[in-house]
Amino acid sequence: MKTILVVDDEQKIREVLASYLQKEHFHVLESVSGEEALAVLRSQRVDLLILDLMLPGMEGETVCLEVRKFSPVPILMLTAKVAQADRISGLSIGADDYMIKPFDPNEVVARVKAILRRTDDSQLLADVISFNGGHLRIDSLKNQVYRYEEPISLTPSEYKLLLLLAKYPQRRFPREELVDRVMGFGFDGDIRIIDQHVKNVRQKIEQDPRNPRYIITVYGFGYRFGGEG
Q1: pTM score, two decimals?
Q2: How far is CA 65 from the centre of its chain?
Q3: For the segment 24-52, what is each residue's pLDDT rounded down to a tens digit?
Q4: CA end-to-end distance (rounded Å), the chain
Q5: Which residues pair with 144 in a beta bridge?
Q6: CA 86 from centre of chain
Q7: What is the pLDDT of residues 52-87, one digit of tens each?
Q8: Rounded to the nearest 5 degrees, what angle is found at the Cα of 70, between the Cα atoms of 66 and 76?
Q9: DSSP class of 57
């Protein structure tokens, strides 16, 4: 379960956000000040920070700068400032996204999910990873996949699917999660589209697509990655 820290001095806003986030199965922590938020971040794991800029004492911008000195935790800023320069400034000091007050709590939840997906999937454990003695190699700097050192042409969705599975060897992914993380939040098509993407990737990277060694079917559930690093 992902932990979200909501930092706002307005109790009503904290309560509303906590209620909506908890309905989506997030664990929610609350802070009323920047100083309290920094103490929480230093003492326990937090997966995302929702940070109001208009805080008493230490302002949100200062909190953001302090957080970035010791933590890469994603930050979603809440601000009443509507000027583009203010929003750009917030992003430039380390925020990942921002929302302008007043806001729709459902949109906040959607932004939280989108940020967590981006930060979860944007990096491999290394810039280049190789499987099965170099049979398959993924270069995340070039966004390129190689089979026996020959470049393989993958569509963006195929590449993202392979990258996600390869990042978490042996983890079982349900189809629904793969659709959400590959096709994007809000995709309302047939979830079986992920099966076609898997079929396409297998045709391109597997020596024997009918007996795959990389993208393994978990019957009645989804898929997992089976390559050996």
Answers
A1: 0.55
A2: 22
A3: 999 999 999 999 999 999 999 999 999 99
A4: 28
A5: 139
A6: 25
A7: 988 989 999 899 889 888 887 888 989 876 565 655
A8: 60
A9: S
Alpha helices in the chain (DSSP H): 11-23, 34-43, 60-67, 84-92, 105-121, 156-167, 175-183, 193-205
76's enclosing H/E stretch is strand 75-79
Is residue 90 a contact partner of residue 53, using CB atoms and an 8 Å limit?
yes
Q: What are the helix and strand counts (H, E) for the chain?
A: 8, 12
Q: Distance between CA 200 and CA 33 in Å, rounded?
A: 50
Residue keyed to tokens 């909501």: 6
Chain centre to alpha carbon of residue 157 = 16
d(CA 89, CA 205): 44
User: What is the token pair recorded at 167?
Assistant: 């990042």
Look at residues 12, 9, 28 and name the one whose alpha carbon lies nearest to residue 109.
Answer: 28
Phi/psi region, residue 120 (left: phi>0; alpha: psi -120 to 50; beta: rest), is: alpha
pLDDT over 90 (residue 224):
yes
Cis-peptide, bond into residue 102, ω within 30° of zero: yes
Q: Return the DSSP state at 142.
A: T
Identify any residues that bridge with 5 across adjacent strands, giving them in sequence order: 29, 49
Structure tokens at 166: 């390869």
Query: Tokens representing 180?
Result: 């959400």
